[in-house]
Amino acid sequence: MRIVAYVANSGSGSVSTFDVRLDRPVGTTKVGTGPTGVGVAPDGSHVYVANGISDTVSFIETTGRKVVATVPVGSYPFSATASPDGRRVYAANWGSDNVTVIDAKSRKVTATVPVGELPHSVATLPQGTAYVTNSGTNDVTPLSKDNRPGARIPVGDFPSGIAASPKGDRVYVADTGSGSVSVITPATNKVTATWAVGTAPLGLAVSPDGRWLYATDTGANALLIIDTTTGRVTARVPVGKTPQGLAVSPGGNRVWVTNEESDTVSVIDPSLPKVRATLRTGHHPEGIAITPR
Fold first, then answer.
1. Running DSSP on this structure, what letter comes out for residue 149?
2. Please, which of 30, 73, 249, 288 could form a disulfide with 91 given CB 3.0 to 4.6 Å?
3. Eight-state DSSP code of residue 156
C-alpha cells in the first residue's frame, strides 16, 4: 500500500490524494458538500471525511480510494478523528455543540455527546479518552472511555486544532485567538504550560518521537516548528496563503500543510527546514491526513 495524503477540498466537495513518497498526485475522490476535517484509521484501511454542509461523514476505503459509506451526524461537522484502537470515529459538530461517536465497523452512530460551544477538533489518546476543542467557549471538553464529558478545561481564545503526544501524556491546543499553545496534562486535566508561538496558530501535529510540535500559523502564512521540551519556536517556514491543516509522514521526515487560499499543499522537510514541493489541490483545501503505511 502506498503512503497516501488525503486532502479535503471544502470548495470542491472532493478529496485530493497524493503519493507521499513521490510527492505527486494520485487522484480525486468526490465526497459530500463542504468537506473540512480528515481522519485516518490506525491500520490505514479507511479515511474519514467530515462534510460540513452535508452534515455527514464519508468513509473512504483506501485500497480503491472510493466512498463506501456516508454516515449522518450533527450540524456542520468540522472534523472526523479515529480512536487509536480503530473502533470509533469522533465527529465534532460545530453547528450543534456536540460530538457524534460512530462505530467504525458497523458505521452506526453509537453516541451523541454534548460539549462546549462551536466544537472544532478532537484528539484521541492511547488510553481511550478524547479531548475536544470548543472555539465558542474557550475551553476543552475531556471525554471518558465510555464517552462521558468531564469538566471543561479553560484555555486561550478560540481554541481550534488539537494534538496529543504519542504516549498520551500531553495534549496540545492551538489558541488561535491568543497566538499561543496550551499544554494540558491528562493526568490532572489541567493546563500546565502556555507557549506564545505566533500570530494565529490553527492546525497542530506532533512528530512520531514526540520531540516536535508543528503548527500552521494562519495569520503569518507559515509552518511553526516548536521544541516540546522548551516550548520555543525553532523555525518558521513560509508556506502558501492561509495555511490550515497539517499532517506528518509516518517516519517524521515530511510535514504536509494545506494552504486554503492558494489551493495548494506544501511539503516541508523539517530537518532543513524548507519547502521541498508545492502541489495543486482542489478549491479551498483544509483538513489533511496521511495513512500510516
1. B
2. 73
3. S
